C-alpha cells in the first residue's frame, strides 16, 4: 500500500483532480524555474518539516526527481546541505524558519551560497526584515508558492495550517488571507459560489476579504474566469458555509468515538498517513511504518465513520466473509469457474491485507478504550452534557482525573468542557482547580497554559446566564437513545451515533444554516449564545450571466445533488467530518458536502496549542 497520502479522487463531488493538478503545476514550475536558471548539478531542496506531508499530497518523489531535484532535506539547525547544485528552500513564513535560514547562510559553509527561498503560500515582511538584518537577504531570490487547499480525500480539503492559537489567542489573522485566496481558487475551478453563509467574526472577515479580492476581477471583466470554471459536465458549489471554530468548542473538546477520530487521537493522522509500530503489522521491531488512510482503501472508507463500539462485530463478520470467499475454490471445477474464482481471489487478497491492518489497529485502540480511565472520561463527559457541567459528579470526575495524574492536556480539556457547558466555573471551584493543577503538574508547566485558556475564553468565571440549556433544547443536541448499526453499508438512524448520545453542534448548525434565511429566525435567539455574527450573502450576478440559458438535463437523467462546502476556521475533527457525511445523506434533497478546514485537529491538540512552559531561572541559583 502506498504511503504518500495521496487519495484517489475519482467520483468526487467536485473535480478535485483539477485542484490537485493545479497545485502540482505550481510546485513543479517553481522547481523548473530554478533548474532553468542553471548553476550545474541537481537541486538541493530544503523543506520546512511542516511542508513535507502537504507537498507529498500533490507531488510524488519521482516528480521531484524529474524536475531537477537531487535530494530533499529537512530544514534543521546547522550548515546548509553541501553540493554544487542550486539551493532551494520551501518554508512557511514564520520567524523560526527564517532564523534557521539566516544562520545557515551566515555560517562558514554557507557564507558564499546563493539560494532561492519560496514562502508557502505568501511571503512575510517581518521574515524578510529578519533576513535583511542578518545580512543574507541580498543572496536570496525570494518567491511565493501559492499552495492553498490540498485534497486529503474525495470530500476533505485542508490548508494544513494549524492556527487555532494564532486566530483566537494571538489575534494573528494572516491565515484568513489564505482562506479567502483558497475560496477564489475554488471559484476559478468550479465557478462562482451561489450562496455564502457564515457564523463568527473570522468568518465575516473572510467574507469581507472575498469582496475586496473579487472587485478587481469584476472590474476587469475576467473573461478567462468563466473559461477556467467547471469543466464540461463539471459541478459547481451551491453553498459555502464558513464557521469559526470557537462557535462550537463543545464538539472538539469531547472524546472522539469514531474509528477515524480515535485513530487520529492515538496515532495522529498526518496528512492522510499514520505511523504504525512495525510489531502491529507482524514485522520485526524497528522504525515506525507509514500506512495510508483514505478512501483509496475501500474497506477503510466503510469503517472510518463507525462508532468504535461497532468495530468488533463488523471486523469479525468481514473476517468470516473473506474466509468463506477463499473456501469457494473447492467448488470451482470447470475452467470458467476457475477463471471467475481467480478474478475474485485478487479482490479477496486485497481485502485480506486491508482487513489485517485494520484488525491490528483496532486491537491497539481497544487497549486504549478498554482502560477504566477511558470509561470514566466518557461517563464524565456525558454527565456534563446532560447537566450543563454543573453537578457534583462532574466535578468529582475532574478531581479524579487530576488525582490520577492524567496527561495535562486531557485534564485541561475536561475542565474547559465543564466551563463552557456551565457558562464558567464558580469562583471557588475555579480557584481550587488552579491550585490542584499547579500542585500536580508544576507552576512552570501549567501557569501560562491556564492563563492562555482564560484569554481564549475556554476557562472563565461563572456567568449567571447559561446558554447551553437553550442551545441543547433548540438544536436537539443530546439524545436519550444511541442507534446501533449492524451492516457495513448501513447508515445510523440518528446523528447521536457519532458521539454516543451527543449530536455535534457544528453539524446541527450546518443543517440549520442550509435552510433559507426566512427560517433562521426560529433558532436565531438560541444561536445568540454562540460568539460572532451570523450572516448570509449571495454574490451579485456577473455581466452576461443573465444571457445564459438555464441548464437542461438529458431525458431520463436524475438531477444532481447540490454541492456544499463547509469551511472550518481554526480546525475540524475527523468525527465532525463523519457526522457531515451522514447529514448529507439525510437532508431532503440530499447534499454532497465537501469539508474544508485550515487543518485537522482534536481536542488535545487544541489544548496543546495553547500550552506554554517557561524556565525558572531562579532554580539555577540553588
TrEMBL record:
UniProt xrefs under PANTHER family: VESICLE PROTEIN SORTING-ASSOCIATED (PTHR11679)
Bias-annotated ranges (Basic and acidic residues): 216-225
Record-annotated membrane-spanning stretches: none
Protein name in UniProt: Uncharacterized protein
A Pfam family hit: Sec1
GO biological process: vesicle-mediated transport
Sequence segments annotated as region (Disordered): 210-233
Amino acid at each position: 500500500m502506498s504511503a504518500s497520502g495521496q487519495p484517489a479522487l475519482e467520483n468526487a463531488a467536485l473535480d478535485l483532480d483539477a485542484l490537485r493538478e493545479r497545485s502540482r503545476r505550481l510546485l513543479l514550475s517553481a522547481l523548473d524555474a530554478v533548474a532553468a536558471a542553471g548553476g550545474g548539478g541537481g537541486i538541493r531542496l530544503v523543506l520546512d518539516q511542516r511542508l513535507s506531508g502537504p507537498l507529498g499530497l500533490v507531488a510524488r518523489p519521482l516528480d521531484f526527481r524529474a524536475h531537477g531535484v537531487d535530494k530533499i532535506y529537512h530544514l534543521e539547525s546547522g550548515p546548509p546541505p553541501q553540493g554544487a547544485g542550486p539551493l532551494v528552500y520551501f518554508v512557511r513564513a514564520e520567524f523560526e524558519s527564517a532564523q534557521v535560514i539566516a544562520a545557515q547562510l551566515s555560517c562558514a559553509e554557507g557564507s558564499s551560497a546563493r539560494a532561492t527561498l519560496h514562502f508557502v503560500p505568501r511571503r512575510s515582511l517581518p521574515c524578510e526584515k529578519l533576513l535583511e538584518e542578518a545580512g543574507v537577504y541580498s543572496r536570496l531570490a525570494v518567491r511565493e508558492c501559492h499552495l492553498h487547499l490540498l485534497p486529503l480525500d474525495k470530500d476533505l480539503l485542508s490548508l494544513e495550517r494549524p492556527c487555532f492559537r494564532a486566530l483566537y489567542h494571538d489575534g494573528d489573522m494572516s491565515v484568513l488571507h489564505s482562506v479567502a485566496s483558497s475560496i477564489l481558487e475554488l471559484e476559478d475551478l468550479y465557478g462562482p459560489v451561489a450562496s455564502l453563509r457564515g457564523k463568527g467574526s473570522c468568518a465575516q472577515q473572510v467574507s469581507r476579504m472575498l469582496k475586496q479580492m473579487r472587485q478587481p476581477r469584476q472590474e476587469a471583466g475576467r473573461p478567462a474566469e468563466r473559461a477556467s470554471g467547471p469543466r464540461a459536465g463539471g459541478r459547481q458549489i451551491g453553498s459555502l458555509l464558513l464557521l469559526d471554530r470557537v462557535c462550537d468548542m463543545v464538539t472538539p473538546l469531547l472524546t472522539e468515538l469514531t474509528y477515524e477520530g480515535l485513530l487520529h487521537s492515538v496515532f495522529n493522522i498526518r496528512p492522510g498517513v499514520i505511523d504504525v509500530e512495525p510489531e502491529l503489522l507482524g514485522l520485526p521491531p524497528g522504525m515506525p511504518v507509514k500506512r495510508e488512510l483514505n478512501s483509496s482503501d475501500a474497506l477503510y472508507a466503510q469503517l472510518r465513520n463507525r462508532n468504535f463500539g461497532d468495530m468488533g462485530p463488523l471486523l469479525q463478520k468481514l473476517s468470516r466473509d473473506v474466509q468463506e470467499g477463499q473456501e469457494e475454490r473447492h467448488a470451482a471445477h470447470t475452467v470458467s469457474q476457475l477463471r471467475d474464482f481467480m478474478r475474485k481471489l485478487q479482490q479477496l487478497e486485497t481485502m485480506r491485507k486491508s482487513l489485517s491492518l485494520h484488525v491490528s489497529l483496532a486491537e491497539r485502540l481497544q487497549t486504549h478504550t478498554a482502560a477504566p480511565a477511558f470509561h470514566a472520561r466518557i461517563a464524565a463527559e456525558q454527565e456534563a452534557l446532560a447537566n450543563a457541567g454543573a453537578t457534583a459528579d462532574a466535578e468529582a470526575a475532574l478531581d479524579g482525573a487530576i488525582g490520577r495524574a492524567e496527561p495535562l492536556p486531557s485534564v485541561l480539556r475536561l475542565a474547559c468542557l465543564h466551563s463552557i457547558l456551565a457558562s464558567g466555573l464558580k469562583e471557588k471551584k475555579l480557584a481550587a482547580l488552579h491550585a490542584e493543577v499547579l500542585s500536580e503538574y508544576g507552576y512552570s508547566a501549567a501557569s501560562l497554559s491556564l492563563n492562555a485558556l482564560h484569554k481564549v475564553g475556554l476557562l472563565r468565571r461563572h456567568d449567571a446566564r447559561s446558554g447551553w440549556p437553550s442551545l441543547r433544547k433548540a438544536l436537539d443536541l443530546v439524545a436519550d437513545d444511541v442507534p446501533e448499526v449492524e451492516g457495513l453499508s448501513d447508515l445510523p438512524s440518528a446523528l447521536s451515533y457519532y458521539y454516543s448520545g451527543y449530536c455535534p453542534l457544528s453539524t446541527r448548525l450546518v443543517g440549520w444554516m442550509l435552510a433559507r434565511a426566512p427560517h433562521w429566525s426560529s433558532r436565531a435567539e438560541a444561536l445568540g449564545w454562540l460568539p460572532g455574527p451570523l450572516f448570509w450573502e449571495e454574490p451579485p450576478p456577473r455581466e452576461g450571466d443573465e444571457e445564459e440559458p438555464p441548464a437542461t438535463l438529458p431525458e431520463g437523467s436524475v438531477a444532481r445533488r447540490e454541492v456544499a462546502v463547509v469551511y472550518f476556521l481554526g480546525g475540524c475533527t475527523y468525527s465532525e467530518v463523519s457526522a457531515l457525511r451522514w447529514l448529507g445523506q439525510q437532508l431532503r434533497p440530499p447534499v454532497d458536502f465537501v469539508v474544508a478546514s485550515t487543518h485537522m485537529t482534536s481536542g488535545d491538540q487544541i489544548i496543546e496549542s495553547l500550552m506554554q512552559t517557561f524556565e525558572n531561572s531562579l532554580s539555577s541559583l540553588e
